[in-house]
From TrEMBL:
The keyword Lipoprotein does not apply. One of its GO terms (molecular function) is ATP binding. This is DNA repair protein RecN. Residues 1-523 form the RecF/RecN/SMC N-terminal domain. InterPro entries: DNA_recomb/repair_RecN, P-loop_NTPase, RecF/RecN/SMC_N. One of its GO terms (cellular component) is bacterial nucleoid. The gene is recN.
Length: 572
C-alpha cells in the first residue's frame, strides 16, 4: 500500500506530506483546493507523462516521493530484472524530480532509474481511475484489453506467444513482397547491386591497407627530416667524423682497457663482459641506422601513386562505409541480396512455406485466444451484472459480444495485435430495452458505476494493492451514491482505496478522512492537508451536505450517515 506521499513545488503545493492508511482513504475539500494535484503527483511516481507547467510558479524543479509497504514476492521479478535491492521490512521508496528544462531524476530504493522503470513498478502498485477512464470505456477498442485482463495467466501466455509469431509472420511477408516486386524494379535492383559489387571488387581492397598507405605517405612527406636524423645518428654512432671519434670506437677502447685489468678483480671482468654485449648490440643498431638512411629517399612518383590509391578508398568510403571493413561488409551484403533476387524462385518457395506454417500457428493461437475470451466473457458478465445490481442498476443486463474473423481462405485473414477477435461490451439499463453499445445508452452516472463494477472484479485478478478513484461520483446521487460508497468500502477490505469525492455518502464510509484546503500565507497560496478526527469528520460531512452554513440539521444528518456507515462496515 501507499504509506506516505511527499510533494514539493507542484502547482499550488509548496511542501506537503500525507500519511495514508489501510482501508478506505477519502479526500474531500473545496473545488480548486488541490485534490487533483495530489492525484497528478501520484501519477508522476508511477511513470506517467508530466508537464513542466505543473512546477510551482517561481520554482525551477519539483519533487514527488512515495513510500510503499509491499510484499517482496509481489515485485521480486522486477527487483531482479533491474538489479534493485529490496528492503528487509518490505518498504519501497520511489522518487521523481523534474525540472523546467525537462530533466527527470528517478530513484527506486535509492537506485537511479528511468521513467519506464517507474511505469513498470507503478503498474504493479497502483491503479488510478479518473473521469477520462469513463471516456475510454466508450471506445470499443479498449474492451478487448479489459476482457483479457480478466482472462488470466493462460491468456497472457497465449498473447505473448501470438505476438512472437505475428512478428515473424510480418517479416516473412515483407521479404516475399520485396522479392516479388515488379520486373522493372527487380532488374534495376540487379543492375545496381552488380555495379556496387563490381566497383568494390575491382578496387582490390585489403583490410589494413588504408592505415599502411597513410603511414607510407607520412614517411615520404617527411623523408628529408628522417634522412637527416638517421644520417646524424650514423655519424655519431659509427663514423665519428663530426665528433672526432665514433661512440662505437670509444666503447671498444674502454672494453680493451678493462680486459687488461680484469685479472685483478672479477667485477672488472663482469663490467667488460657487459660492455662487450653493448658493443654487439650497438654494431647491429649502427648497421640498421645506415640501412634506413640509405633506403629512405623522396620519390614523387611513389607519393603520387599513394595519393591516387587513397583517393580510390576515400571515394568508396563516401558510398559504402566509414572504413574498408564496412565497405567489404557492404559488398558481402550486396552479394547476398543479389543471390536472393537472382535465385528468388527457390527462396520464395521456402518463404511461402514458412509463411504457411506461421499462418497455421497464428490461426490456431487466435482460435485458442477466442476460446479463452468466451470463457472469460461468461464469468465477467455474471460478475458485472451482480456488481451493477449492488450499485443500484438492478435491471441492467451486461453482455460481452465477441466476433471472430472466420474466413474460408486463411490467406485473406488480416491478423491484428490481439488476434482475430472483435470485442464490444453491450448493456441494457432498463427492462425491455435491447442490448446496445455503451456509447449508445449509458449516462455519465451509469458509466461511473459500470467502470467501478469492472474495476472491482479486475482488482482481485490483478492483485494491485492500491486503487485510486478520482471523482467517480460524477452524475450520481442519493441511493446510487450510497451504494458506490458501500462498494468502495467493500473493496477496501482487501485493497487500499484512495477516493477523491464531493459526496457525503462516500466520505462517511472512510476509514481515514482528509480535508484539502487552499490557504494564503504571506501573499502566497498553497495547499494544506489535514487528517480529520472525531467531530472534525462529522463537521466535514455536514459541510458537504449543506455547504459552508453548517446547521444542527446537517450535523444531525451527518451523525446519522456516519452511524449507518459504521453498521454497514461492521457487517463486512
Amino acid at each position: 500500500m501507499l504509506r506516505q506521499l511527499e510533494i514539493k513545488n507542484i502547482a499550488i503545493i509548496d511542501k506537503l506530506s500525507i500519511e495514508l492508511g489501510h482501508g478506505l482513504n477519502v479526500l474531500t475539500g473545496e473545488t480548486g483546493a488541490g485534490k487533483s494535484i495530489i492525484i497528478d503527483s501520484i501519477n508522476a511516481i508511477t511513470g506517467q507523462r508530466l508537464s513542466k507547467d505543473l512546477i510551482r510558479t517561481g520554482e525551477d524543479k519539483a519533487l514527488v516521493e512515495a513510500i510503499f509497504e509491499v510484499e517482496k514476492s509481489h515485485l521480486s521479478d522486477l527487483y531482479e530484472c533491474y538489479g534493485i535491492e529490496p528492503e528487509e521490512d518490505g518498504v519501497l521508496v520511489i522518487s521523481r524530480e523534474f525540472t523546467r528544462s525537462g530533466k527527470n531524476t528517478c530513484r527506486i530504493n535509492g537506485k537511479i532509474s528511468t521513467v519506464s522503470m517507474l511505469k513498470k513498478f507503478g503498474e504493479r502498485l497502483i491503479d488510478v481511475h479518473g473521469q477520462h477512464d469513463n471516456q475510454s470505456l466508450l471506445r470499443s477498442e479498449s474492451h478487448i484489453d479489459l476482457l483479457d485482463s480478466f482472462a488470466g495467466e493462460k491468456m497472457h501466455k497465449l498473447k505473448k506467444e501470438y505476438s512472437v509469431h505475428l512478428d515473424s509472420y510480418k517479416k516473412i511477408k515483407k521479404r516475399i513482397s520485396d522479392l516479388e516486386g515488379n520486373s522493372g524494379e527487380r532488374e534495376r535492383k540487379i543492375d545496381l547491386l552488380k555495379y556496387q559489387i563490381d566497383e568494390i571488387q575491382s578496387a582490390g581492397l585489403k583490410a589494413d591497407e588504408e592505415q599502411q598507405l597513410e603511414k607510407e605517405k607520412e614517411i615520404l612527406l617527411n623523408s628529408e627530416k628522417i634522412i637527416k636524423v638517421f644520417s646524424n645518428a650514423y655519424e655519431v654512432l659509427g663514423l665519428g667524423s663530426k665528433t672526432g671519434e665514433a661512440v662505437l670506437d670509444r666503447i671498444n677502447e674502454v672494453v680493451f682497457e678493462l680486459n687488461n685489468i680484469k685479472e685483478f678483480d672479477k667485477a672488472f671482468a663482469e663490467i667488460a663482459r657487459r660492455l662487450e654485449s653493448i658493443v654487439y648490440e650497438l654494431e647491429d643498431i649502427v648497421s640498421e641506422v645506415r640501412a634506413k638512411r640509405d633506403d629512405i629517399e623522396f620519390d614523387a612518383n611513389a607519393l603520387e601513386q599513394i595519393e591516387e590509391r587513397l583517393g580510390v578508398i576515400y571515394k568508396l568510403k563516401k558510398k559504402y562505409g566509414n572504413s574498408i571493413e564496412e565497405i567489404l561488409n557492404f559488398m558481402e551484403d550486396a552479394q547476398k541480396q543479389l543471390d536472393e533476387i537472382t535465385n528468388n524462385e527457390e527462396i520464395l518457395e521456402k518463404l511461402n512455406g514458412d509463411l504457411e506454417r506461421e499462418n497455421e500457428i497464428l490461426y490456431n493461437l487466435a482460435k485458442e485466444m477466442n476460446g479463452e475470451r468466451k470463457k472469460a466473457a461468461k464469468l465477467i458478465e455474471d460478475k458485472i451484472c451482480h456488481e451493477l445490481d449492488v450499485l443500484e442498476m438492478k435491471n441492467a443486463k451486461f453482455r460481452v459480444k465477441i466476433e471472430f474473423d472466420e474466413r474460408e481462405n486463411k490467406d485473406e485473414i488480416s491478423y491484428k495485435e490481439n488476434g482475430l477477435d472483435k470485442v464490444e461490451f453491450l448493456i441494457s439499463t432498463n427492462p425491455g430495452e435491447p442490448l446496445k453499445p455503451l456509447s449508445k445508452i449509458a449516462s455519465g452516472g451509469e458509466m461511473s458505476r459500470i467502470m467501478l463494477a469492472i474495476k472491482t472484479i479486475l482488482a482481485n485478478v490483478d492483485e494491485i494493492p492500491t486503487l485510486i478513484f478520482d471523482e467517480i461520483d460524477i452524475g450520481i446521487s442519493g441511493k446510487a451514491a450510497q451504494r458506490v460508497g458501500e462498494r468502495l468500502s467493500y473493496i477496501s477490505k482487501n485493497h487500499q482505496v484512495i477516493s477523491v469525492t464531493h459526496l457525503a455518502q462516500i466520505a462517511c464510509m472512510a476509514d481515514y478522512n482528509y480535508y484539502i484546503e487552499k490557504v494564503t500565507e504571506k501573499e502566497k497560496t498553497k495547499t494544506k492537508v489535514t487528517r480529520l478526527e472525531g467531530d472534525e469528520i462529522k463537521k466535514e460531512i455536514a459541510r458537504i451536505i449543506g455547504g459552508e452554513n453548517i446547521s444542527e440539521i446537517t450535523i444531525k444528518h451527518a451523525e446519522e450517515m456516519l452511524e449507518a456507515s459504521r453498521k454497514y462496515k461492521g457487517q463486512l
